[in-house]
Amino acid sequence: MRHDERGAVTAETALALPLLVAVTLGMVWMLTFGVAQMKTTDAAREVARALARGEPTAEAVALAERVAPGSHVQVTARDGTVVVVVTDAVPSPGGVFDGLSGTTRAEAVALAEEVDGEQGEVGG
């Protein structure tokens, strides 16, 4: 090794390490965001199915709270269908990504099941 290149590897590592940490943190946050989106989608589907079966609204919304804790659930029923919208906030990871908080949103629609030849009542 030549004398004038001493410490070059250390200097390069010191410059690259913060970038690698930032990229890793960003990838973990994107993974967290993806998991949150899957949870809101599952929560919306569960609530829509439960309401379509005729379960009370409070019980159906409690299902969403179990699947996606802290999420907000909006239920609309019209013309024999149930529309459920679930939203959830995803906080930023901090550091250089401090402004990257976001919100996931999922919507599910279900037809109310018929009970003895009549359209089922949604929510109770």
Summary of the model, kept short:
The protein starts with 7 loop residues before the first helix and ends in a 5-residue tail after the last strand. The longest helix is centred in the N-terminal third of the chain and has 45 residues. The chain contains two helices and five strands, in the order H-H-E-E-E-E-E.
Could you tell me the mean pLDDT?
Answer: 84
| Helix content, binned percent | 40-55%
| Oligomer type | single chain
Low-confidence stretches: 116-124
Number of helices: 2
* Biggest beta sheet attributes: 3 strands, antiparallel
Numbering strands along the chain, what is their spatial order in the largest sheet? 1-2-3
Terminus-to-terminus distance: 80 Å
In total, how many beta strands? 5
Structural class: alpha+beta
* Dominant shape: rod-shaped
The radius of gyration computed from the alpha-carbon positions, rounded to a whole number of angstroms, is 24 Å
Strand content: 25-35%
Work out the count of structural domains.
1
List the helices and strands in order: HHEEEEE
